[in-house]
Amino acid sequence: MSNSDFIVIKAEEDGVHVIGLTRGTDTKFHHSEKLDAGEVMIAQFTEHTSAMKIRGLASIHTTNGTVQSDSKKQ
Ligand code: TRP
């Protein structure tokens, strides 16, 4: 199972985490990627990845639109 759409994540601060969650009955973290400010990750949903969690200030671009995640730092 794969999806050709790409998700583009641009970190707007240091230490943004992109966390991949598994597909199937168990939903667990399987990968965490750390991005620093200005770094971009381009990712897809795959047979292994059903969801992504973004922690930290980032802009996230999808075919459904763009959303900004917020920072927990103050
Ligand atoms: N090995 C993972 C997979 O094929 C790599 C991956 C794809 C991933 N999309 C991701 C990791 C999104 C983190 C977030 O599913």
Estimate the mean pLDDT confidence. Answer: 95
With helices defined by DSSP (H or I, 4 residues minimum), what is the helix count?
Answer: 0
Low-confidence stretches: none
CATH class: Mainly Beta
Structural class: mainly beta
Radius of gyration: 12 Å
Q: How many structural domains are formed by the residues?
A: 1
What separation lies between the terminal Cα atoms? 40 Å
The helix/strand series, from N terminus to C terminus, equals: EEEEEEE
Q: Give the amount of beta strand, in percent.
A: over 45%
Domain Tryptophan RNA-binding attenuator protein: 3-70
Subunit structure: Oligomer of 11 identical subunits arranged in doughnut-like structure.
Organism: Psychrobacillus insolitus
Protein name: Transcription attenuation protein MtrB
Report on the architecture of this protein.
InterPro entries: MtrB (IPR000824), Trp_RNA-bd_attenuator-like_dom (IPR016031), Trp_RNA-bd_attenuator_dom (IPR023558). Keywords: RNA-binding, Transcription, Transcription regulation. GO terms for molecular function: RNA binding. With 74 residues, this protein is mainly β. It has a single domain, classed as TRAP-like (Immunoglobulin-like, Sandwich). The chain is 0% helix and 54% strand. It is built from no helices and seven strands. The strands form two sheets. A four-stranded antiparallel β-sheet has the order 4-1-6-7, with no helix packed on it. A three-stranded antiparallel β-sheet has the order 3-2-5, with no helix packed on it. Strand 2 and strand 3 form a beta hairpin. Tryptophan binds next to strand 2 and strand 5.
